[in-house]
């Protein structure tokens, strides 16, 4: 049976000057070895929740945080950050500038003799592919290398849980893409559970086993990347994670009628609170464009992104719809198109 490494029960944080909680009644569990991405727009409470797990912020009311079966925060328990057995990686690396790579990594290794420290430093630097840079100082490293040192330093004491707060956000896109895969591989190789804060949807999906989408302090949905993407629990999750289109829709027998056509929707794809009207959600990549003279949708603009074209379409009523197609379908700006939808791709949310 899988083991729970982290359990949050009803965690709330209010900062005194703000009536809206930064974190509002959040409960979740994380299994040993899993990577949780906390995803949400700026100010939704990701960092505050991470800091509470780390012990850098106290909860505002009853609620518990349990790490590996030990309560670290509750109404009558408080375990200090350094006793929580966690590793932390920040966005700005926070390396000691006057220490070499090896000394930085060795920093958190208490209770080990010199040889054991040397052995562990070599091991983790090997894990993050920096073995030959042991004697360098942080200023002699690239941003990506510095972040790998920070990761190695946090991993060296073999923490039960790693907390990573937007660790890639100061890196350029190429390094960022490479490092997110590397971080996942490194965490998996070490078997370390982790929470990774990001506001980048693709990054969250790519790095995690479980995604927690946050909005205004609330945990809006918790699920695997596939669940979050294919079955968003709310319109907010659909918009934030996939930038899906929404169209007002009315039930007409078996079909849902919209201004771009009528479509069948499976019962399971209709949210419970919806009666006969709603918002039909359609992802950009599930729209199929077919050039048709005098059709009701126009291609307002087209952008080439290498692998795909992105189209901005306009309906008769002036509504914008966004579509992405692989580069083998090329339609000119100004053309009128009919829109079809890939099978089972639509969902209905409350209006
Ligand atoms: P970002 O992606 O911009 O870092 P975030 O999702 O991590 O955002 P938090 O930093 O957790 O969001 O902030 C959540 C809310 O709590 C915001 O409204 C923020 O202004 C507020 N907040 C955070 N820290 C404090 C503080 N020390 N004092 C007062 N308000 C705070």
Automatic annotation (TrEMBL):
Localization annotation: Cell inner membrane
EC number(s) per entry? 7.6.2.9
A Pfam family that this protein carries is TOBE_2
**Main location per UniProt?**
membrane
CDD domains the record matches? ABC_Carb_Solutes_like
Q: Which Gene3D superfamilies match?
A: P-loop containing nucleotide triphosphate hydrolases (3.40.50.300)
Every ABC transporter domain range: 6-241
The membrane-topology field of this record reads: Peripheral membrane protein
- InterPro entries to which the protein is assigned, alphabetical: AAA+_ATPase, ABC_SmlMolc_Importer, ABC_transporter-like_ATP-bd, ABC_transporter-like_CS, ABC_transpr_FbpC, Mo/tungstate-bd_C_term_dom, P-loop_NTPase, Transp-assoc_OB_typ2
An annotated GO cellular component: ATP-binding cassette (ABC) transporter complex
Protein origin, superkingdom: Bacteria
- Report keywords, A-Z: ATP-binding, Cell membrane, Ion transport, Iron, Iron transport, Membrane, Nucleotide-binding, Transport
Q: What is this protein called?
A: ABC-type quaternary amine transporter
Name the species this protein comes from.
Mastigocoleus testarum BC008
Q: What Gene Ontology molecular function terms does this protein carry?
A: ABC-type ferric iron transporter activity; ABC-type quaternary ammonium compound transporting activity; ATP binding; ATP hydrolysis activity
